[in-house]
What does this fold into?
Amino acid sequence: EFWLNRTLPQPLGSSSPSFCGHKCLIEAMLPLTMKLARRTFSTAVSAPTGPLAGLRVLDLSAILAGPSATMLMADLGAHITKIERPRRGDDTRRFAPPYLQKGPEQDSDISAYFASCNRNKHSVALNFATGEGQQVVRRLLQDSQVLVENFKTGTLDKYGLGYKQLREEFPGLIYCSITGFGNTGPYKERPAYDMLIQAMGGSMSITGVPDGEPMKMGVSMFDLTAGLHAIIGILAALRHKAQTGIGQHVDISMLDVSVALLQNQGMNYLAKKQRQARVGNSHPNVVPYQVMPSRDGYFILTASNDEQFEKFCKVAAVEELLQDERFSTMKARVVNRVEVTERLNEITRGHATNWWLQELQTAGVGCAPILHLDEVFADPQVRSRDMMIQMAMPGFQKPVNLIGSPLKFSRTKVNYRLAPPRLGEHTDQVLLAAGFSEDEIKQLRVSGAIGEVPQPVEMPTPPLTMATPTVSDAKEGDPSPGPVLGSTWDSVRSTSVPNASAFISSEPTSVPRPRSKLRGRAVGGGTWDSVRSMSVPNASAYVDNLGGGGVPPRPRRQLAKMQDQGTSSKPVS
It folds into this structure.
């Protein structure tokens, strides 16, 4: 009754309300009222409030590039149906340790990696290598506006689920493929790891210290940015569909993305056709714009123009440098990089990091500490922007910490409705909503087209909240964080400031290293033909082994606003 009396949002690019919001679920439920009385469906899931509410996405992707894209769309309100292999699920379920902790020193079966990109999704355990599974995919597409996949080029064609095979039956479908090398070109059938793309796209050749080896970035940059470009492409295609009613194929190549993101570095080469030497933590076109040594550590200095460099010289009491032709202009400082850097390093070693941070910030010169991750999540700016949240999960003693969405809207706010799902948690719910009868679902399970129903797990009741951050005063590799007491330039501790005694309590709580009995599986293969890709899984990866088996004080208005955005859901049993 609650849903039937609500005004349901209309999906992008659709003129019919029949696929809006949760209405298709209601229509499937009404004829089955007596049967559904024996089932426990979630009644605590809040309505999506984001700008994509009403959009339905069938997510056939796995690992990181595709799932990161669909999670962002889910946070924005889209209804995401995530297709996973029966018994095995998304490979990232086994990319561990670490696992989310369901109690003190207790591993759950959900890896931190999987949790990073799979909230707000409905998990369906479906084997589309079978004919029955392929028909289920087609049935689900009747209510979907978007399909996202990141298999190797040509993989889904083998199962009759490629774009060319679906476009006549579903002319309005936006079909997004995220692959290593795209759907055309001599490399199109190769799989891809993020690190391969970092190497082949040129970014590793310009990353690292000048006399060291080429260096990859610390995050899977091109998995994640390929996912972001996929969202941009999907939204643009939905805009076109809204005007024409016609869908299209969105072809995203990780290599294309890596080349596009060379941006100014790529143009530095194209301007003069000269290879660029690595400059480590420095900037190729600006000096100083780099890591600087201090008396007790390091900090970042970004004097990105002549005005800021003059302010730096005044703070450092070395205004005579402004009369030196090697230092006086931006071009001169770049040309004389070695001499300038050596002199500035001598200067910055004269004071402690906190002194530089306070004085430079006061003078309006760009600067920053270099923070560890515990300090990032304890930072007052990060906390104020709700970039660490908590969600209740079935079988967990306490809510778990997750990274929040960076997208903030004044009207259509992001909300967090579903915790990262158990494998196949929503299979029956989704199939009933798509019009399958209970007998049909039972037959699909007998045939092996869908997975078993996961065991029901008790769901805790705490609503979505801000997490309580902690910050560590430990040396590298020694996990012993304590509660945060303050956060100013005076007390901040980081890679650049070894001592954090002012920042944490005098009696930090020891956090032991998680004990895990589970281990991720090694990836086999070492050639272009046999290698498994973290970003683009191959067909065998999908079909193999199917037969085996306190919250910080907050203003009352803001807390109420968070509660209005919704709480986590109870599981479907």
